[in-house]
Amino acid sequence: MKRVIQKFKKCQAMIEMAILAPVLLVTVGLIVTYACKMNNDQWVLMEAFRRALATSHNTNKIISYGTWDDRMMASVQQPIIGQQTPSSGSACVMWVVNDVTGNGEDPEGETYVKVNGGMWTMGHEYPLGEPASGGIETMRIATTGSSLTVNTQDTQTRSSRTGGSGEFMLYKINEKEYPQGRVHIMGRGFSGGD
User: Fold this and answer.
1) Which residue has the higher pLDDT, 130 or 7?
2) Euclidean distance between CA atoms 115 and 128, whole angstroms
3) Distance between CA atoms of 155 and 194, rounded to whole angstroms?
4) How do residues 4-30 score in pLDDT, each as one tens digit?
5) pLDDT for res 42
6) Do residues 114 and 136 lie in contact, with contact meaning Cβ atoms separated by under 8 Å?
């Protein structure tokens, strides 16, 4: 009778671990994903402030600066291809040396929007001129694909998985349309055997 109870306790512990381990793994994954998203949001917000501060200092104008960033982040459903995660930030900076002649003129203002700039700003910063308001309307067309290849020779098994996505994004900012595109390709391999 004691042996049956001991076997039952071992089986119960294994079942509990089989249920608890995936739940803990999913929880840790959600926490890491949330932390990455918050980090990206903070980076985009501070990038808007830094750019507004630098532009205001260089042009002696009141600068409103907005950023919009569509990043590809890791995804549980598609680990090779990933998922699109948008983040945005804005800042308004007045680092202006006023006119000391006594004319009383208000400083000029300008608005800029940076879309998907990252480290390279060539062609992704759009000046909107006078202080403007509005939003960014996005249209995204994406195509994705992935393949899995498995080769077995003697006792060696090799597998490789490749995938990628091609995207065309159209951003409508204050009735003007700005097209962008990008390609993301990734692959990984595994081999094993005796």
Assistant:
1) 130
2) 13
3) 6
4) 566 667 788 888 889 999 999 888 888
5) 92
6) no
Residue type, 41: D
Query: Could you tell me if 134 and 111 are in contact, meaning their C-beta atoms sit under 8 angstroms apart?
Result: no
Domain that holds residue 152: 2-193
Q: How many structural domains does the chain have?
A: 1
Segment 31-88, tens digit of pLDDT: 888 888 899 889 889 989 999 999 888 888 888 888 888 877 777 677 667 777 888 8
3-state secondary structure 15-28: HHHHHHHHHHHHHH
From CA 186, how far away is CA 48, in angstroms rounded? 30
Q: What is the pTM of this model?
A: 0.66
Give the per-residue pLDDT at 121: 47
So what's the pLDDT on residue 194?
A: 54
Which residue, among 120, 113, 135, has the nearest Cα to 67 in the 3D structure? 113
Distance CA 101, CA 84 (A): 52
Interior CA angle at 136 toward 37 and 166, to 5°? 65
Rounded CA separation 131/83 (Å): 34
Give the contacts of 67 (CB within 8 A, at least 6 positions apart): 44, 45, 47, 48, 51, 88, 89, 90, 113, 114, 115, 117
